[in-house]
Amino acid sequence: MITNFKKKDIIKELSFKTGYSMLFSKKLIDNLLECITANICSNELILNNFGVFKTILKKKRIGRNPKTNKEYTIHSRRSLKFTPSRNFKDYLNNE
């Protein structure tokens, strides 16, 4: 079992399971990831039986280096939050 799954590994797996060429599988994965990214960036992506991806805004705050105790500003930024569906959680817990 692969723990560090790369895009290249996904392409090989798809090509092996479907019989498609590596080039066609690469185009499929690229288009899928582009579609997912565009939908997540617009605010939210709901995948039935898998979960919800949401963009959240993290506010500006003060951080501190624990080694030196020096404070610095962490700027506001957008972040990604994933909430798994109940079906996905059940699948993970039953396996």
Mean pLDDT: 91
- Helical content stands at 40-55%
What overall form do the CA principal axes indicate?
elongated
As a whole number of angstroms, the C-alpha radius of gyration is 19 Å
* Beta-strand content: 25-35%
Largest sheet, in brief, is: 3 strands, antiparallel
Walk me through what this model shows:
The chain is of the alpha+beta class and 95 residues long. It contains three helices and five strands, in the order ααβββββα. It has helices spanning 7-18, 22-42, 86-94, and strands spanning 44-47, 51-58, 61-64, 71-74, 77-84. A three-stranded antiparallel beta sheet has the order 1-2-5. A hairpin with a 6-residue loop joins β3 (61-64) and β4. The protein is elongated, with a radius of gyration of 19 Å. The two termini are 14 Å apart. The mean pLDDT is 91.
